[in-house]
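User: Sequence recovery, please. Input:
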């Protein structure tokens, strides 16, 4: 398929060549962010949109490859939660599908690196934590308004 064929097919579906490249740029940004955080032992690239992040390491559900992703968590004492919002997209993020397939993950929270078990919160616990997430980080409430899916919350339980 030539360049013009790709452009025509994508334009017919409402997209552009530029839009086709965006996921690659986004993937590069995520990888670079996680790499800087990890290599600096949690001293560089520690925030996203002003919120502290952790780096979550999962194993790819389809490939088995190691995947690292920076995520803004809700941290309450010993409780650590990650929110599978993907900015209000219609689908769950890949990291959520990965931990559903294998809930054994690794977490880096600044210099603290540890193994954890990912526990997807059932109702009503999910709704209780969701209220605290939105109170602490109102942007997540906006993400919920953009999608029809219920945004999952995952507790990271230190192993």
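Assistant: Recovered sequence (159 residues):
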């Amino acid at each position: 398929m030539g360049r013009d064929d790709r452009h025509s097919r994508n334009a017919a579906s409402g997209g552009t060549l530029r839009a086709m490249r965006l996921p690659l740029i986004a993937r590069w940004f995520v990888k670079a962010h996680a790499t800087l955080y990890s290599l600096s032992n949690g001293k560089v690239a520690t925030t996203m949109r002003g919120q502290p992040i952790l780096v979550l390491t999962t194993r790819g559900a389809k490939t088995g490859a190691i995947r690292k992703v920076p995520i803004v968590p809700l941290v309450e004492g010993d409780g650590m939660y990650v929110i599978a919002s993907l900015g209000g997209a219609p689908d769950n993020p890949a990291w959520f599908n990965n931990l559903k397939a294998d809930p054994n993950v690794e977490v880096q929270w600044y210099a603290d690196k540890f193994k954890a078990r990912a526990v997807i919160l059932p109702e009503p616990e999910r709704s209780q934590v969701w209220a605290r997430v939105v109170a602490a980080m109102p942007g997540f409430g906006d993400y919920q308004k953009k999608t029809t899916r219920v945004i999952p919350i995952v507790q990271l339980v230190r192993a």
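Residues 17-39 form the longest helix (23 residues).
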